[in-house]
C-alpha cells in the first residue's frame, strides 16, 4: 500500500525509504492488537506500511481519548525516541497492520540529516494540529466537532461512490466519541442530527457523506 499524503514515509526519497527499511525489521499485527502501551519505557519506533491504527490515552476516570488515527507511511513512537520518556499513548490496530520496527532510530537520524529535519517538521505539524483541536473543543458544539472529524476522515480515507463519499475507516461510535471529546450519547445525537439534515448516512462502522459542502458549513 502506498504511503498516505502527509505521512512520514511520503516525505522521504526512494533511497531514504530503502535505508529506513534496511535499518529495521518487518512485523505484523492483527486487528485489535496493542502495538504500544501508554507508560511503557521502550524507545523503538514503527513505520506503518499497511493498515491503520488509533493513538489514544485514558483519563483518570478510565475514559478513552483518541488523539489521532495513523495510516500507511505513518511514524509511530517518535516522541519516546526523542526524549527518552515513557510512552504517552497507546497504539491499537483498527485493522490488520504491518510495519517496520526500528530499534535505533536515533542512529538512523544521525546518519540521515535531511530525514531528521523532516521529522522536526512533522512533529511541529502534529503540535499545531493538537492546538487546533483544543480550540475546536472550546469553540464548537459536539455536532460541529463530529462534522469536522468526519470531514477529516473523508479527506484522508474517503472513497467516491455514486451517492457521495464513503468513509471506509472502521471507527466505532465509541472511538469517534473519544476523538471528538464527547460522550457516546452526544455523538449519537450529533450523527442523528446530521442524518436528519440529509448530510450523511451511517451504518455499522461506516459513514457515507452525501453533502460534503453542507457538512463543511455545519462544521463551521
TrEMBL record:
Pfam families cross-referenced by the UniProt entry: cNMP_binding, HTH_Crp_2
InterPro entries: cNMP-bd_dom, cNMP-bd_dom_sf, Env_Response_Regulators, HTH_CRP, RmlC-like_jellyroll, WH-like_DNA-bd_sf, WH_DNA-bd_sf
Residue intervals of the HTH crp-type domain: 140-213
Keyword entries, A-Z: DNA-binding, Transcription, Transcription regulation
Gene3D superfamilies linked to this entry: Jelly Rolls, Winged helix-like DNA-binding domain superfamily/Winged helix DNA-binding domain
Cyclic nucleotide-binding domain: residues covered: 8-129
PANTHER family: CRP FAMILY TRANSCRIPTIONAL REGULATORY PROTEIN (PTHR24567), HTH-TYPE TRANSCRIPTIONAL REGULATOR ARCR (PTHR24567:SF74)
Record's protein name: Crp/Fnr family transcriptional regulator
Gene source species: Nonomuraea indica
Amino acid at each position: 500500500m502506498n504511503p498516505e499524503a502527509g505521512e512520514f514515509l511520503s516525505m522521504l526519497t526512494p533511497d531514504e525509504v530503502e535505508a529506513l527499511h534496511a535499518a529495521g525489521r518487518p512485523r505484523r499485527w492483527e486487528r485489535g492488537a496493542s502495538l504500544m502501551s501508554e507508560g511503557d519505557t521502550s524507545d523503538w519506533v514503527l513505520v506503518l506500511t499497511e493498515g491503520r491504527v488509533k493513538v489514544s490515552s485514558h483519563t483518570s476516570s478510565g475514559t478513552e481519548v483518541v488523539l489521532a488515527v495513523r495510516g500507511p507511511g505513518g511514524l509511530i513512537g517518535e516522541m519516546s525516541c526523542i526524549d527518552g520518556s515513557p510512552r504517552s499513548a497507546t497504539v491499537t490496530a483498527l485493522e490488520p497492520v504491518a510495519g517496520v520496527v526500528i530499534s535505533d532510530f536515533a542512529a538512523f537520524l544521525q546518519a540521515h540529516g535531511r530525514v531528521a529535519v523532516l521529522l522536526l517538521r512533522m512533529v511541529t505539524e502534529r503540535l499545531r494540529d493538537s492546538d487546533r483541536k483544543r480550540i475546536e473543543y472550546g469553540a464548537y458544539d459536539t455536532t460541529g466537532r463530529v462534522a469536522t472529524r468526519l470531514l477529516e476522515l473523508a479527506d484522508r480515507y474517503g472513497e467516491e461512490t455514486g451517492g457521495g463519499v464513503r468513509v471506509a475507516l472502521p471507527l466505532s461510535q465509541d472511538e469517534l466519541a473519544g476523538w471528538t471529546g464527547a460522550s457516546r450519547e452526544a455523538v449519537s445525537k450529533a450523527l442523528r442530527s446530521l442524518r436528519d439534515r440529509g448530510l450523511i448516512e451511517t451504518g455499522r462502522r461506516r459513514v457515507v457523506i452525501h453533502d460534503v459542502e453542507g457538512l463543511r458549513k455545519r462544521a463551521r
